Amino acid sequence: MSEYTNDTSTGELSSSLATPQLAPITAARRIDAMDVIRGLALAGILLMNIEWFGRSIEQIGRFDTTLTGLDHAAGWLVRCFVEG
Question: Of 35, 17, 15, nearest to 25 (Cα)?
């Protein structure tokens, strides 16, 4: 016997097995570390998009050797941790 039945009026298959309803989990069951990791991932994507859209095509993939001081440090951090 099949677990699926065919509704001839709509032409759709329906399952006879009970499926749980999807709903948000409670705050007590959330994993805080996962939220932090997701936030860091989104920040990394934002940084990469700022870097990508802030340069011309010919400058993408090259490190700007004219930077000095904090600009050089920030450029190096972006190059290492954002661009990979």
Answer: 35
Per-position DSSP letters for 23-43, written without gaps between them: -PPPGGG--HHHHHHHHHHHH
pTM above 0.85, yes or no: no
d(CA 42, CA 70): 24
Contact call for residues 9 and 21 (beta carbons, < 8 A): no
Mean pLDDT of 35-52: 87
Burial of 34 (0-12, 13-18, 19+ CB in 10 A): exposed
Give CA angle at 71 (65, 74), nearest 5°. 100
Instruction: Tell me the residue ranges of DSSP E strands in the chain.
Output: 4-7, 12-15
